[in-house]
Amino acid sequence: MQVTSTVEGSRAVVTASGELDVATAPELRAYLHKIVDEGASTLIVDLSDVGFLDSTTLGVLISVHKRLAEAGGVVELVIPHARLLRIFQITGLDRVFTIHSSLTAAAQ
């Protein structure tokens, strides 16, 4: 897993790549919470280059969503691939997160 980010004011775009699973979830959680601690209230997580994610990763995204929602913030996701999008649809998380098909769409 690799994670990078760009921050503009209170908006952060986090780009993850590789596999997001039980082994990488703690690192991802720490990374996302650090960005929130530093003042981001809008967090866009780009999953375009993620080959696999598991339920532990879903838990990380939900925990960050809850934390930001309590403070009036939002987590949005970029998921261009049907295979990952299906996971969010099956679990009902497509109704929790705003999901964009590209970073360009998320920027609008």
UniProtKB/TrEMBL annotation:
Domain of life (superkingdom): Bacteria
PROSITE patterns in alphabetical order: STAS (PS50801)
Domain STAS: 1-108
CDD domains: STAS_anti-anti-sigma_factors (cd07043)
GO MF terms, alphabetically ordered: anti-sigma factor antagonist activity
A family per Pfam: STAS
Family: Belongs to the anti-sigma-factor antagonist family.
Protein name in UniProt: Anti-sigma factor antagonist
Source species: Dactylosporangium matsuzakiense
